[in-house]
Amino acid sequence: MKVLATLSTLVALGSCQGITKVGDFTGGPTNLGMYVYVPKTLKTPAPIIVGVHHCQGSAQGYSTETHYQPLADTHGFILIYPNSKSGGGCFDVASEATLKHNGGGDSQTIANMVKYAIDKYGGDPERVFTTGTSSGAMMTNVLVGAYPDVFKAGSVYSGVPDGCFAVPGSTATQDPPGWNNQCANGQSTKTAAQWGDLTRSYFPDYTGPRPRMQIWHGTADGTLRYPNCEFPLTQPPIIIDQEQMKQWSNVLNLTTSKDTPNTPQSGYTQTIYGEGDATTAQLVGYSANGVGHSVPVHEDVDLKFFGIA
Ligand SMILES: *[C@@H]1O[C@H](CO)[C@@H](O)[C@H](O)[C@H]1NC(C)=O
Q1: Which of 107, 216, 222, 225 could make an S-S bridge to 295, C-beta 3.0–4.6 Å?
Q2: What is the Å distance from ligand 1's center to 265 Cα?
Q3: Is the peptide bond between 232 and the residue preceding it cis, with omega within 30 degrees of 0?
């Protein structure tokens, strides 16, 4: 018995260094799990980064696949990891409920997690950021689109435009959530103004500033073009990437862009829209040549873009 007790104490101590489930988060409206990492030493008030996992992933998994935790210790920010309510681990980025501001879907639940962290941990409402991979990248676009009043910037790893995954008639509670093949296949193209109108339609009364955006996509992405893995194919991932850039350049009202090859590393092309550099611009794209699904997370670049490091 004694040995067992000691062992379980050790396990408990070990888990303190990882993420913790917030038992009393009942913010709904959907039943996502809220996991957090709150370092011992926080900035006052503390920036918040929401990290949204991919399909077949989890809050726990994404918290270790990405390497934000040591950076949270260094820079004193709070991490929130939402956990999907779906058996397949995807987030709902397809229902009208999730696409609309306060529409009653997963995006609203995540926005409520941010409010919880501001209240309970001393989070800074002026420095709230979101990032994610694949399904989490789609959700990042959805969060930024529907909650420009909550998020100041987003960093998207291998996603699709806000609203691209819409499935008419799909609901916020169905499992699995809606899946839009046409969008995943890179066959949903619109003009920049049409994409921008879509985003604006999800929160039509909003007139304030729009979040800054950073978009990462691999040119050899084999998932967000053909979910059935008919690989290799040619253009679609680039199209998905370009559709996102069109959308946010319209929303952010940016008309000029400048490419820099081999930035931040060999094979990546950086595109800065409008004024500023990689840390100050409103919109930055990274096209990763030959990289598949999904683009590795660049935590250091994200933190600089968010103005945290
Ligand atoms: C968009 O930017 C241009 C300048 O580049 C400006 O003249 C115009 O008023 C802006 N439009 C909106 C809707 O902010």
Answers
A1: 216
A2: 33
A3: yes
Active site residue 58: no
pLDDT given at position 232: 40
The count of structural domains within the chain is 1
Kindly name the residue from 84, 86, 95, 134 that is annotated as catalytic: 134
CATH of the domain at 147: 3.40.50.1820
Residues 76, 78: Cα–Cα separation, whole Å: 7
- Measured at the CA of 183, the angle between CA 181 and CA 185, to 5 degrees, comes to 65
Distance between Cα 209 and ligand 1 center (Å): 13
- Is residue 15 one of the residues assigned to a domain? no
What separation in Å is there between the alpha carbon of 253 and the centre of ligand 1? 6
Is 33 inside a domain boundary?
A: yes
Helix or strand holding residue 270 (H, E): strand 268-273
pTM of the model: 0.91
pLDDT digits (tens, 9 = 90+) for 32-77: 999 999 999 999 999 999 999 999 999 999 999 999 999 999 999 9
Please choose, from the candidates 237, 240, 147, the residue with its C-alpha nearest in 3D space to the C-alpha of residue 199: 147
Task: Confirm whether 256 is domain-assigned.
Answer: yes
Chain-centroid distance, C-alpha 111 = 12
Which residues span the domain enclosing 167?
A: 22-306
Mean pLDDT, the chain, rounded, equals: 90
Distance 210 CA to ligand 1 centre (A): 13
DSSP alpha helix (H) spans, the chain:
2-16, 59-65, 69-75, 96-99, 106-121, 135-146, 181-184, 192-201, 236-251, 299-306
